Each structure stands twice: as structure tokens, then as C-alpha cells.
Amino acid sequence: MSVKNSFMMLVVGGLLASCNGGPNKPNIELINDMMKGPDYKAQQYDEHQPHGRSNRVPPEGTVPQGFEPYAYPNDPVAAGKNLKNPLAGKNDPETLARGKKYYSIACQVCHGEKLDGKGTVTSKYPLPIPSLLSDTVRNHPDGRVFHIITKGQGLMGSYSRQITNLDDRWAVVNYIRSIQRQ
Ligand code: HEC
Questions:
Q1: Minimal-distance CA residue to ligand 1 atom 9
Q2: CB neighbour list of residue 126: distance below 8 Å, 6 or more residues apart
Q3: Mean pLDDT along residues 169-177
Q4: How many Å separate Cα 175 from the centre of its chain?
Q5: Which residues contact 68 (CB under 8 A, 6 or more apart)?
Q6: CA of 145, closest atom in ligand 1
Q7: What distances in angstroms separate CA 119 from CA 16, 112, 161, one per listed residue?
Q8: Rounded distance between C-alpha atoms, residue 139 and residue 132, angstroms
């Protein structure tokens, strides 16, 4: 190897070594074409997709893993008739504490700590908020109260996203029943 070649080897070696940015430092990328793919932000237009959206559209007829379709989306009466409370009769301290926890997180601001419809936001609400101690709610089957939590009713929205676990919703129903009995 000539002196000139050895010198070139040193220079190239030095350049390559300098790509390593050092301990705890990012490497220096001289040619980074293959290192990073083009990225798209959510909601961005993507001309490569047939629908023009960077967000992928789920294939037709598929559901996310673990998703259970709700059988009575628009039918509180059928829900009341057909949905069976899997926690029926469970009034142990754990179940009731579980129900109370979710009631206080998702319902109490409106329906009140005592379930009497006198929560902290009641005075700001355009219409009176119903008490859950009424004969109406007492006479609703468990499934119908579950339905109201899941889908809402009239002015009240759905609380399915606040209480995602189905048994937690049933525990709220049991908790409401336990206060109604008092
Ligand atoms: C933002 C206020 C608000 C929150 C929070 C709320 N509700 Fe309601 N709820 C209402 C209103 C208003 C109505 C009356 C809706 C209508 O029929 O137009 C109602 C109605 C109901 C009814 C039916 C009462 C009847 O007489 O028909 C039940 C049962 C009920 N809510 C349970 C719950 C439960 C359980 C939660 C918690 C998961 C909850 N609500 C959270 C405002 C709220």
C-alpha cells in the first residue's frame, strides 16, 4: 500500500468513525435515505391511499379485538327485558364499593351524592336532573339502567367511555339499588 493510499484509508476511517456521535449522543447520519421512512400525521392527506386519508380505514365487516357489539343500541325497553345483570344479588362490600367508585366519578356531579338529582352542576343545567330514587328508576329493570349508562337518555349522554368495563357499569346499577333500598 502506497503512502497516499494509507493516508486515504485513514481519512475514510476517520470519517466513518465520526458517524458515531459518541456515548449518549445520536449518531451523525451522512446518508440517511434508508433510515427514516416518510411519516404522515394523523388526519393528513395521503395521496397514496385510495380514500386520500393517512389514517387507515378498517376493512369492511371487521371489529377491533375484544369489541363486543351492543345488541340494543336504540331500544331501552328491549335492553331492560333481555339484559341480565351478571352481578344480580351481589351486594358484598367490594361490589358496592366498586359501584360507588364509578358512580362518584361519572354520575355524582349531576345526580348527586344522595342520588336525589342535586349534584354540584344541577343549578347550571338547563333542565332539572332526575332523582334516581324515583319510582320510575326503581321500576326500571337493571338492564334498562345499564342501557342508560351505556347509551344515555334524552339530554344525558352516554357514559360508556367513562365506564368502559361492563361489570363496572353493572356494579353502578347494584350501587344505585343499594341506596334505593335504604
Ligand atoms: C351531565 C349530567 C349527568 C350525568 C353526569 C349523568 N346523568 Fe343521568 N341523567 C341526566 C339527565 C339530564 C337525565 C334526564 C335525561 C332525559 O330523560 O332527557 C338523566 C337521566 C338518567 C336516568 C333516567 C332517569 C329517569 O327518571 O328517566 C338514569 C337511570 C340515569 N340518568 C343514571 C345515570 C348514571 C348511572 C350516571 C353515571 C354513569 C349518570 N346518569 C350520569 C344527567 C346526567
A1: 156
A2: 155
A3: 98
A4: 23
A5: 166
A6: 29
A7: 68, 4, 21
A8: 11
What are 81-136's pLDDT values in tens digits?
Answer: 999 999 999 999 999 999 999 999 999 999 999 999 999 999 998 899 999 999 99
Which residues contact ligand 1 via a Cβ below 6 A?
A: 106-107, 109-111, 129-130, 132, 134, 136-137, 145, 148-149, 153-156, 159, 172
CA dist 80 and 147 (Å) reads 7
- What was the pLDDT predicted at 182? 92
Cα–Cα dist 24/26, whole Å: 7
CA distances from 180 to 46, 91, 106, 136 (A): 55, 13, 18, 12
Cα 131 to ligand 1 centroid, rounded to whole Å: 8
**Using a CB cutoff of 8 Å and minimum separation of 24, what contacts does 158-165 make?**
159/106, 159/107, 162/102, 162/105, 162/106, 163/102, 163/105, 163/106
